[in-house]
Amino acid sequence: MLEELLKAPFWIDIENWPLSWEIGGTSWFPFLESIHVIAAALLVGAIATIDLRLLGVGAVRYPLSTLGREILPWVWGAFMIATITGLGMFITRAASHVVNPAFQWKIFLLALAGINMLHLHRSLSTL
To answer: In terms of residue numbers, what domain contains 34?
Structure first.
């Protein structure tokens, strides 16, 4: 069943959307890619700050509740921007991406990261 889903013709249909052609055939793709990388870097930096605080290595002057309240909006914002720009790039080559094992792993790990972010957000909001 998964095999059939991955090879379904609607992935080609997605690639043929006017928006897909507009992004893939103009300077929109490198623009989205640049914003995607910046959002990913912001996301990694913000999460690293919280992780280092949890390890007692960095930002130890700040209570975890304060740090979480200040950083989590940036984490969620960066995650949403990275998701939106990633989808924009994805639709230009959807059929080839969905059958790529590296892309499948990426999506799986991003889903786990999203679940981890939800858990972290809930944990920090109870402090």
So the answer is: 19-125
